[in-house]
Amino acid sequence: MGSPEPKDGGVRPLGDIDRVIHEPARLMILMYLYSVKSADFVFLMRAAGLTWGNLSSHLSKLEESGYVKIEKQFLDKKPHTMIQLTGRGRKAFRDYRQTMQRALGNLGN
Question: Structural domains in the chain?
């Protein structure tokens, strides 16, 4: 008597998961950015509960992947950094969400 076959491929879709997004801090950052046009660095740092250096490191990885666009400027002689999800990042996040939904949906009850 073998184990039951997982329906619809089991958790196999997780093999295709985007590992850049799957890291918890980057996932949280993208979740915030997905629902807004853009966010400033300080807002993301506070919302995600990350340190300046940690957020900077994760944003660099997301920027290298083409998922976010970072614009630095000065407002009243103070540095101000705005981050927004790119079209590629928005698509990658939707694909990630669909992959997770398929994998989790395949678990059944």
Answer: 17-97 (1.10.10.10)
Q: Exposed, middle or buried, 65 (CB in 10 Å: 0-12/13-18/19+)? A: middle
Q: Are 91 and 45 in contact (CB under 8 A)?
A: no
The burial of 26, by beta-carbon neighbours within 10 Å (0-12 exposed, 13-18 middle, 19 or more buried), is given as: buried
With a CB cutoff of 8 Å and minimum separation 6, the contacts of 26 are 20, 58, 61, 62
Instruction: Indicate yes or no: pTM above 0.90.
Output: no
Task: Please write the tens of the pLDDT for every residue from 61-81.
Answer: 999 999 999 999 998 998 899
Nearest to 65 by CA among 18, 9, 105, 17: 18
- For 9-38, the pLDDT digits (tens) are 555 667 788 999 999 999 999 999 999 999
